[in-house]
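User: Fold this one for me? It's Endonuclease/Exonuclease/phosphatase family protein.
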Amino acid sequence: MNLHAMNRLVSLSMFLTLLIWPAFNTSASAEDLQVMSFNIRFGTANDGDNHWNKRKELVAQRITAFDPDLLGTQETLEFQKKFLAEKLPAYTSIGVGRERGDNEGEMTALFFRTARFELLDHGHFWLSETPNVPGSKSWDTSLTRMCSWARLTDRESKSARPILFMNTHFDHIGKQARIESARLLRTKAEQLGKGCDIVLTGDFNAGVDSKPYRALFGQSSGESFFHDTYAIGRPADESGEATFSGFKASTREGARIDWIATSNHWKVLEATIDRTGINGRTPSDHYPVTATLLQKAKTMP
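Assistant: Here's what I get for Endonuclease/Exonuclease/phosphatase family protein.
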């Protein structure tokens, strides 16, 4: 068999495999909110057989299989954002590079379903002591880190409250930076999210027994500001919660470092870690995590 024929056979095999990949639950009602957080691994990494060009279709396939209303991505470069925008024409995307606030460098790019949401406002801030300064760094962070956000009106929700959708990526080395970033996120969420119901996605590079986790989800004035959707959707003390796969679909033991969090007034219907793989590999070195939410009807001002 010549090389051209072999390539055609491989492409056909991958196409057929994608067709039989397990799909997510498609029984969600119109008001349910499907949320996904996905670290897609920066596309210029020297990953060999797991290079972006060899897995980008798999990334897009897992996103479309879940069909999220809100999608937060991490480690997203401009050409990856453009690829996903082409594959997801029903979505509006927002994202800037972390170095200067332009198109250079990794983004915490977020996507929302255009027909469902009206965009009220959007912006970005940096995880530093000067959050409004693009590219700023503080504490012991090894890299510039940021958060992107959008304030939305959900045309399908019975609640009159808008949604603040935030997406972030904490530093992978700086221990103090992760703690301070969690504290900053809570402060910013309170400021930007006044009158809103908040959804937060991200790669937090910290486990659920960590100080950053407690700083984000800990109680203040007797009540938690943020709630961990996976802990609510899967309340049992389960093993096998790893969300960093290292491109291996068999990885289960390890820390759950990718989270979807909400403020009050959300009901968690389901929360999952998508470990779908093909030939033993995953679409990224992180598993995408998902949550199905219901925005509660307005009961207070």
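One thing worth pointing out: The CA atoms of residues 45 and 51 lie 7 Å apart.
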